[in-house]
């Protein structure tokens, strides 16, 4: 697996990539996650001889911070340029976006005729939340910016965060310790936690607008897990292929990379040439 850095839409970001053939697969993570969360799926795709790459979205992992102002337009700019770069170098990609990554490609696909083969949106944000998240959202969006992080020792906070990451992902396999270490490495200081809380509040103020956008004019498969603790679709989305997978949580790339690879590659095998379908 290759690891490097590139500048995309003015954002310096980390790129994890594996080599192979077929339609390139571009992987976009969710909120507070990063490209390394896709390692198991990248390894699975590489073992099957398939080309794929994962990026840190702006504001996450080792990518540059987001600029002030609305979040979703920044993510859409980034994803649009990433798609065009991959298409120019390897051919039109199949974009797989989890949670906020699914919302980001949904927004980017509104903008113009992208050289995009299709979209797999895994538990995309913007189409409904579980009850516990709706409650937490009301509390968070009413919390003033700059509210102090709880005065627990940082090792305790970091332990609780990893537990929350694994819990939010789903009830599947035990979280890979290497993935957990890489993820928690984003939060070495209390200031990192304050920044993350402020960013999630910004995202939550915008995210419902994603579900109000037209369905992208490309083949779209939406994937939902029956044991997802974070999002739950509150309505059907006409014009998409929707799949509900028993036992999957919010981040199947962490829980079930082999089965997710099957699902993504099967969808990719049925894609026509990378042209938007009529709106």
Count of DSSP strands? 8
N-to-C order of helices and strands: EEEHEHEHEHHHHHEEHH
Q: Give the class from helix and strand content and strand pairing.
A: alpha/beta
Could you give a short account of the major beta sheet? Answer: 8 strands, mixed
Lateral strand order in the biggest sheet: 1-2-4-3-5-6-7-8
Distance between the termini: 38 Å
Which stretches of 5+ consecutive residues score pLDDT under 50? Answer: 274-279
Radius of gyration: 18 Å
Shape by Cα distribution: globular
Mean pLDDT: 84
Measured as a percent range, the helix fraction is: 25-40%
Range of strand content: 15-25%
Description:
By secondary structure, the chain is α/β, with parallel strands linked by helices. It contains ten helices and eight strands. An eight-stranded mixed beta sheet has the order 1-2-4-3-5-6-7-8, sandwiched between helices. Strand 1 (2-8) and strand 2 (11-18) form a beta hairpin. Helix 1 packs across helix 10 (257-269) and helix 2 (72-90) packs across helix 3. The radius of gyration is 18 Å and the shape is globular. The N and C termini lie far apart (38 Å). 43% of the residues are buried.
